[in-house]
Amino acid sequence: MSLVKINEFIKEKIEKSTFGVFAYLGEKFGIQSSKLRLYFIYTTFLTLGSPLIFYFFALFWINLKKYVRKTYTLIFE
């Protein structure tokens, strides 16, 4: 495996093992998740942490959506 493939593999595993909020939003809006993370860090410092409220809300919403989708498919299989 080349170094680039190893780097992509590690990045993908870390994103899936963490909450994946920026990866999800990046897929939805067609923006690189690394740029979203960078903008989030900048705005968090500029606004003294207020985007953290949005992050936790998105985290809750995405995990709730995954849970509902999983139980919905288990019920109707």
Protein topology:
Layout: H1 3-17, H2 21-29, H3 33-46, H4 51-75
Helix pairs in contact: 2-3
Descriptive overview:
With about 80 residues, the chain is an all-alpha fold. The protein has one domain (about 5-75). Helix content is about 80%, strand content about 0%. The protein contains four helices and no strands. The relative contact order is 0.09.
Q: Can I get a quick summary?
A:
By secondary structure, this protein is mainly α.
Fraction of residues in H or I helices: over 70%
Count of β-strands: 0
Total domains: 1
Which spans have pLDDT < 50 for at least 5 consecutive residues? none
Instruction: Please give the largest β-sheet.
Output: none
Mean pLDDT: 80
Order of secondary-structure elements? HHHH
CA radius of gyration is 15 Å
What distance lies between the first and last C-alpha atoms, to the nearest angstrom?
39 Å
Number of helices: 4
Shape: flat
The assembly state of the depicted protein chains is single chain
SS-based class = mainly alpha
Question: β content, as a range?
Answer: under 5%
Features:
4 helices; mainly alpha; 0% strand; 82% helix; 77 residues
